[in-house]
Amino acid sequence: MLLAWFFLNSDVGLGFVKGFSEMFEKLLGFANEGTNFVFGSMNDQGLAFFFLKVLCPIVFISALIGILQHIRVLPVIIRAIGFLLSKVNGMGKLESFNAVSSLILGQSENFIAYKDILGKNLP
């Protein structure tokens, strides 16, 4: 409850959320510009809207997530925030990891974070 109040009612918390949101808006803007560069005027004509506006940004963000996971930046961030979240609300580490991963990556890219974890933990 205190964490929700911090993020929603304090200037520092709102600044953090706004900065985080602007960072991902900028990433999606880069994905959109890359799509326009590669596919040109198809986007202006309304052709293949689903492919250009939905699938291409997911591929771009997935590649970025893969790079951040390969250099071990993303797992450290997710585990650190998940550890803090598990201490605050009493959830287990796996549930906290899932919550933070969904928050940072989004629902469609969330499963990319589990690709390496499941491969190591399965018998």
Automatic annotation (TrEMBL):
Describe the location of the Concentrative nucleoside transporter N-terminal domain by residue ranges.
2-42
Keywords from UniProt, A to Z, are: Membrane, Transmembrane, Transmembrane helix
List GO molecular-function terms, semicolon-separated: cytidine transmembrane transporter activity; nucleoside:proton symporter activity; uridine transmembrane transporter activity
Q: Which Pfam families match?
A: Gate, Nucleos_tra2_N
List residues traversing the bilayer: 47-68
Cellular component, GO, one term: plasma membrane
Q: Which residues form the Nucleoside transporter/FeoB GTPase Gate domain?
A: 51-117
The name this protein goes by in its record: Nucleoside permease nupC
Gene name, Swiss-Prot/TrEMBL = nupC_1
